[in-house]
Structure formats: C-alpha cells, structure tokens
Amino acid sequence: IVFVNEVDNNLANVAVEVALNYVKKNPQLGLSVDMMYVEGNRTDSKDLLQALCSKYGQSLSDNRPPHLLLDTTLTGVSSETVKSFSLALGIPTVSASYGQEGDLRQWRDLTPTKRGYLLQVMPPADMIPQVIRSIIIYMNITNAAILYDNTFVMDHKYKALLQNIPTRHVITSIADDRDRASQIEKLRNLDINNFFVLGSLASIKQVLESAKNEYFERNFAWHVITQEQKDLTCNVENATIMFLRPMSDSSSKDRLGSIRTTYNLKQEPQITGFFYFDLTLRALIAIKNILQSGSWPSNMKYITCEDYDGTNTPNHTIDMKTAFVEVTEPTTFGPFEIPKGAKIPFNGNTYMKFDMDINAVSIRGGASVNTRNLGTWEASLNAPINVANEAEIKNLTADVVYRVYTVVQAPFIMRDPTAPKGFKGYCIDLLNKIAEIVEFDYEIREVEDGKFGNMNEYGEWNGIVRKLIDKQADIGLGSMSVMAERETVIDFTVPYYDLVGISIMMQLPSTPSSLFKFLTVLETNVWLCILAAYFFTSFLMWVFDRYSPYSYQNNREKYKNDDEKREFNIKECLWFCMTSLTPQGGGEAPKNLSGRLVAATWWLFGFIIIASYTANLAAFLTVSRLDTPVESLDDLSKQYKILYAPLNGSSAMTYFQRMADIEAKFYEIWKEMSLNDSLTAVERSKLAVWDYPVSDKYTKMWQAMLEAGLPNSLEEAVQRIRNSTSASGFAFLGDATDIRYQVLTNCDLQMVGEEFSRKPYAIAVQQGSPLKDQFNNAILMLLNRRELEKLKEQWWKNDDVQNKCEKPDDQSDGISIQNIGGVFIVIFVGIGMACITLLFEFWYYKYRNNSKVIDIVESSEQQQQQTAVVKNVRPAGKVIKQDSLKDFTKGQNYQTLRTRTLIPNLSKFQPRF
C-alpha cells in the first residue's frame, strides 16, 4: 500500500503503525503488508505530487504496483492533490479526509465504476461538529459563536453546518493568548451570547479563562465539545457549562482496552487514533478479500504520472466498496455506519458511529463541584440529541436578555430604585408589553453621555446610536426621534408614538394677589384728586347754602311746613357728597339753585367715576388671560429680551442647526447666481432685490442659541427657566411631550405656541437586526388592542405626580378672596370706627353736654303758684333743661324759679340713649 499523510497528523502515523503491527501479530488474518510512506503539507501541492509520482513510479518499475492508497490527509491542497492523483491514475483509495457530500471537489462527479474503488470515510472530528446543529435545533438558539482549534477542521462547515437554520452565527478559529479576550469581547458586541468551543481540553480551558466573569451569567450559555475523554477543568469563579465528549461503544470496550495495553495505542484523542486503526485494518482486509476471491483484475493496467495526458485514466472495475462493507472484523471504538442503497452516496455519508456524552458541569472557585448527565447524542449528520433531563438542559440555555440603553427623560424613562429594572415610565411599560409577546428579558442602562445620538462633522456618532453601531446595545429606548441620518446606520421599528413636534416652554407669569387690589384699580394720584374734589365740593356746597338767599337756613319761615328741613352745614355737606357716590343716594338736595347745580355736577362726576371704577375693577379681578410676550416661534425670533435654547445633542438642536445650515447654503447659491458674470444685465436685475430671497430667521436664532448656551439636561433647562426674571427671561425649545409633562407636573411652567417639525418616536435596533420585525408585529398588536392609548392616558393624564399641581383650568372665573378680601377688612375697620365713635358720643354726652343746675331767687308769695304750674306742665321725675326752662318762664311771665324744689331726687337720674 501507499500511505499518504500530512504534516502534524502524528496520530495517524501511530495508528497505522499499530495496525500493521496488529496484522503481523495476528497471522490468522492472512495479511502481509508492504507499505510506502509519503508525507505532505496543506499548502505545498507540488512537492507532495512529486513525492507521490516518484513512489508510485518506483513501485511500477519494481513490478510491485500498490493495491491500495491509504489517504489520511485532512483538508487543503494536500487532500486535493491526493484525490486528483488517485482519480487520474485509477488507484484504489480509502481516504479519511474531512468533508461531506460534495466537499471533495475532485471526487464530486465520479462514475459508478470509480465510486467502487475511490472511497472516503469521514473522521470523528468531522462528525463531532454536527452536534452543534442538533443542540441549536433543540434549544432554538438564535445566535451562536463557534470557536475551534487545530484539532478540528471547519473550512467546509461555514455554510453547511447550520444551513436552513435561522441562527445568526460566526465560525472562527480560537485566537492566540494576546487576542483571545478581545476576540470574545468582539463576538459579544455582535450580539452573541451562545458560545460553542470545539477543541482540546487545553484550548477549552484557555478560552473559558479568557472570558469575563459577566459572560457566565444567565444570559450567556457555554457549550464545550472535545474529542478527549478527560474531565473539564478551568479557573472560572462561577459557571455552569455544557460539556460534551465522546464515548466508546460498550460492546467494544474489551477490545479497546486490549489494543491500548497490548499495542500501546494510548495517544489522545483516543477516538481519532482508534478510527485510523480500524479504518486501516478494514481497508487491508477488504483488499485481501478481493484478492482471495479472485475479483482483482488480472490484467490490471497502470500508468505513471508521465504517461497521464488527462484522458487516459485506466478503467478499473474493482468493487472495493462492497468488500469494505462486508468486512466482519470487529471495530475497536465504534462500528462504521455505511449507507444502504445506491441512492445515498458512500462518500460523505460513511463514518464511525459513536455517542457523545452530554453533561452539565458546575464550576465554583475554579474547581468542578458537580457534574450532571443531561443526555447523549449519537453521531450523525442530522440526529437529534437524546435528552435525559429536560428541565436541567433548559437551565443551560442562554436567556434571551437584550441590552437596552436609554436616556432618562420623564415620563418616558424615569429612575425608580423600587422598580424591577430600576426604571419606570411609558417606555418601560411598552417594552414589558412587547416582551410578553416576543418573550425576552432585558437589562437596561443609561448611556454615558446622555445623548440619543448625533453625528459630528467627521461622520462619527455618539449616544445610543453609537452603542447600536458598535453592537454594545441591542435596543435603544426612549423618546428617540426617527431621523433620516440615523436610519442610515441603525434601524427603527414602527412608531410607538405619533408625530411629536418641537414646542416652547417658559415660566408662567404669576399675577400678584392683594387684599386691597380694588384700591389699585385707580392710581394713587387719581384717588387723591377724587378726595380733593370731594372736600372741595362739600365745602363749596356749604358756602353756597350759607350765602344764598334762597337756601333753607336763610328762609326758615318759607320752608317751615316742608317735611324735609335739611340745613347744609359742613357735616351735612360732607355726608351728602359721600352718600351721593353710593346706590343709597345723597338724600334731599339743597333748596337754592346754585347748590343744586353743585350737587348735579357732583352727581355727574360721581357717575363717571363709579362707572369707570366698576369697569376696571371687573377687568382687574375676572380676566384670567395673562399677558405673554411670546406666543409663537416667530415672536421668539423677533425679540432679544428672552434668551432661548434647545437641549444640547437633542433632535431640536439638530433641527435648528440644520435649518441654519440650509439658509446659509441657499444664500450662497443665490449670491453665486447674482454675481455670475455670464448673466446679462436683465437677468442680473431680476436677482437684485432689496431683501434676501432666503430668510435668515433660523441663522439668527441658531446664533442666539449658541450665545445663550445650550443646557445639557432637561433639569438644567427647567432650572434656568425658574431662575429667569422678567428682565432676562429664558425659553426652552424641546419635544412637546417632554414639555407637556413638565407643565402638568410644575405649576410655574407653561407651554407656548404650536408644535413644529413633527417627528415620530420609535424603538431603535441594530441595523439588520431581526428584532425590528419582531417588535413591529408586537407594536401593531398593541395598537390594535388600544394598549398604547391606555399607556398615554396613564402617564400623561392619570399620573399621580400631576395631581399635586393645581391646574389653571380648574380655577374659578370668579373673584378670589385674595383680591377682594380688603373689602371685608373695610367693613371691620368701619365697624371699629363706629364703635369708637359711639364711645366718644357717650363720653361727650355724659361729661360735656349734661343740663346745668342753676339757683333762682323767687318771692315767697309766688312759690306755691309756680310750683303748681310746674307740676301741671312737667311729669313727675322729669328734668327740665335750662333752655326749656327759660322758654317756659318767659312765656308765663315768671321771673324766678328754684329747680331744687322743681326737680326732686336729681341724684337718681339716669340718661337715656
């Protein structure tokens, strides 16, 4: 035979040598083998081909043509060179190269005759990766990173391994020590949390120890697969790993132990070594059986490499396939699985059968503390795994935990240490409802710079968009506007919140309340003038009444029969002018015409004053509309007293910046047109306008914003609004939803103007992410169920926070006690003054205005008569005042009276009020 192997495949050399030694020590097999050895590498086909041609030509020259070419090259140009050599020269070949059906390019289109003597049996290392396919199908894994070392060949597996399975995956070789940690980090940034490691136990240990501790949490899953049969060890703090290793056939354990001890075939991995051993032995026995049965052609034709011209391949009819199948020699590790029937090709479907033991290994503090059997997998191209512990194996699956980055902005996202994820808000409720439909979990973090994402002049992004581009985030959540430039680098779901525009938020002007606000209706100088007019008119009326010959006091006899005998002294004039200003009226007017003209003039004056006062008082106390200096964006742009700015890095900032840039570009275009020398005078005159054809509104506004300074957070903007004064106000321009919520929860803020530059809100995902379609379906389902409307109602209308704030719409249109309360104070002041006056009257009457007691000398003869007269006139116990007494004595011609005799018991007299 000609034995062709490749560099570094020492295990094949050892196994073939053991097989030849086994043949020698077992003469009952009837085999005598003369072997020619050729070695090549995977990259140099020329030297390998020359060596093959040399060995083969030498054997033909010695008249000892080989019966078999045993090929243990794995892959690459070495394997392709051997396949081309055997195909061209028609040499019976048994190959152990990697590859399924169609992977051996030189043996793809074999004739039925050539299929009889060109045979390929897949090595165990080519079958073991198929278990990954079975695990992914069983666990419904949607993403996977498959790492492998040099003990596995995966070049031909990139497309075939997970073909027709909707799993996003990466197949790559394990990096060296310096780059291994960053390799795992990059795979994680590709949104991969299921890791499959194919390799030796040493390679697996290095990969596990290179991963961060956080990569062994519940949202990650590790599956390590090896050809070795030793236990898994690694220095990991806390991890539970699915560990798969091959198991030998139970019926062959005795033979395996015998070969190991007797023939010293102890190299690892055992499964590969015994595969080469069984394959070599089976191929030799098959050739022996063909020779013994006489099926070997007697006129076997051989050609050398030099004789081959591309068309003269010998047409051999050797049926080595049947002989290979009919070999009864027992296997050492596991039997060969050979397809039955002519429809299934031998090559790419023949392999050694074996089972993979599936275990869950728990590692704590760098030591394996527990190993639990989960099931087995029988080697096959499409065999499912046999699960023994379904509950346990489900615990080893990586939970679907998406990384969510957000920006805190009420009421969409708000911090809440008591919430399950540490946040609450409209978007959190929305994401939870989507998670119920799509079935996933998430971890949420704030983006470090607090930005949703903007692109600088160098095309670099920040904020959530940067996280999505770098694959550090799966979902961007919050009040994130859908913008054209963002859609070039990330994807958006269907909008969960309809068009939201930019609005203006300012401080709500406060109307100061005053108990004596009714006095502020007229200015102080007006009140003083009214008071002066009052005293002047009162004095004038007294003068006219005193000096007019037609007044009452100067014509008492004329008006002695009138019911109203009103003398307009100073007191009455003051009272008349005062009461004339009230609905009660001033009472009887003066008798003289001049006084009445004065009274009529005062009435007209009072009517005008009262009417003006009443109208202004009503306007002052009932009009609730506040005088706002800014009511629209145009008003804001035309004034310079109030500063204004949007949030730094927000979509509002981008809007004004872009609008200013557009105006500048349009102006440059117009200027270039107007200064074009190729224009005629008429054409240039059409462009000569007094005003620029392009407005510079946004250019001036953007300049004003930069001078005012852009706040970095909404809290900072609200604080600047509250710190502003009437002399230097501040207005914030931002999303209407944010402003509306701030107005609802803060009594000192107001929303001004209409919304403009409307954009929808949507959830951001990575570009090309399957989450887009999943979330789209979920959001549309929520829209159909009116769930989103309920969430809006909850967070914008029924929120408990806003109930603490009194709404302007809830205030009454009537006059508040704060503005009219002074009237009640006037009543109490008047009552107090009346009480003081009453006391004064009591004092004045008792001590200043009592009747005086006088002594009158009267004649003795007249005493009885006078006493009798007095008794007849005065009731008993009554006091006769001095004036009355004078009148009385005057009328009766009495000259003298003695009051002590007329008014007895004067000391007991009590005045009546």
Automatic annotation (TrEMBL):
SS bonds (residue pairs): C53-C305, C747-C805
An example Gene Ontology CC term for this record: plasma membrane
List where the protein spans the membrane: 525-544, 600-623, 820-844
Q: Write the record's keywords in alphabetical order, separated by commas.
A: Cell membrane, Disulfide bond, Glycoprotein, Ion channel, Ion transport, Ligand-gated ion channel, Membrane, Receptor, Transmembrane, Transmembrane helix, Transport
Which PANTHER family does this chain map to? IONOTROPIC GLUTAMATE RECEPTOR
Output the InterPro entries linked to this UniProt entry: Glu/Gly-bd (IPR019594), Iono_Glu_rcpt_met (IPR001508), Ionotropic_Glu_rcpt (IPR015683), Iontro_rcpt_C (IPR001320), Peripla_BP_I (IPR028082)
Q: Which residues form the Ionotropic glutamate receptor L-glutamate and glycine-binding domain?
A: 411-470
Which residues make up the binding site for L-glutamate?
A: S481, R486, S651, D735
Protein name in the entry: Ionotropic glutamate receptor C-terminal domain-containing protein
Q: In this chain's numbering, which residues are marked as the site (Crucial to convey clamshell closure to channel opening)?
A: V630
Q: Which Pfam families match?
A: Lig_chan, Lig_chan-Glu_bd
* The keyword Ribonucleoprotein appears for this protein: no
What is the membrane topology here?
Multi-pass membrane protein
**Single annotated GO MF:** signaling receptor activity
Family in the record: Belongs to the glutamate-gated ion channel (TC 1.A.10.1) family.
Q: Where in the cell is it found?
A: Cell membrane
* Residue intervals of the Ionotropic glutamate receptor C-terminal domain: 401-798
Where is it chiefly localized? membrane
